[in-house]
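I have been asked to look over a protein record a colleague put together. Alongside the sequence sits a line of tokens, each denoting a local backbone shape. Please read both lines and tell me whether the tokens look consistent with the sequence. I do not need a full report, just your reasoning and any doubts. I have pasted the whole thing underneath without changing anything.
>
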Amino acid sequence: SRACPEQRRRVTGHAAGRMRGVTLIEMIVVIAITGILAAVVATFIRRPVEGYIDAARRAELSDIADTALRRITRDLRTALPNSIRITSAGGVTYLEYLQVNGGGRYRSDVDSGGAGDPLDFTAADASFNVIGPIPALAAGDSIVIYNLNSDPAIATANAYVGDNRAAYSSNTATTITLAAAKLFPFNSPGKRFQVVQYPVTYACDPGVGTVRRIAGYAIQAAQPNNVAAAPLAAAPSNALLATSITGCSFTYVAAGGAAQRAGGVSLSFPAQQAGEGVRLFQQAHGNNDP
């Protein structure tokens, strides 16, 4: 049977109610409430997030400075006695030393049977016997005996000047041969010699915020103090060690009285990023007993 008009109107009204959408006023109210809730939440989580970011940045800066300090400290333990020297030029601080690869004891006299090849300190000598195992040697190495100075103004017992340094040529199981006969100025009380590989310079430049390790250049009497000029500019090894460095403090103090058989290097690196800063300090012991 056909529905009456009143029933049709009632059904049509129910369908229209079910199809009713969201009004513009309701949308604006929802957006406003959502914005208020977001602002409240952001207020509460902002500080913890900022604290986490600041802590992560400080940890990164500490790691940068600590890595540089540890590398320098480790290297200084292998420095030739009395070869550490520090200078500054153009706002850059330079720390230089001579890298030692090993050493040993030389024969100073013949044995009871009159045999052996002792190192002569009265005339130039081109070879000598080694007491004990031969250290690792390679082309370009130098033999240094009784190094006492690093100041270019003092030419005696100074490996930088070269009076106590001779180029290595070859070796057998018991004998080291020099590239040319050499008269070393002093006999070592401990009959010791060191094998020097090359000089190493740490250049700290707060202007660009870097610390670089430069190595393998030729030994110079005067300390190099320009990374853009020879010999540092032409060095075969120039490695970036640290960034974000805002200052450098290198201090070397020889101790032990007149003999100066020990030395201490104080190292300090302040580092900074986006307003966050750290400063690390470390001391390294240097053995100055030649």
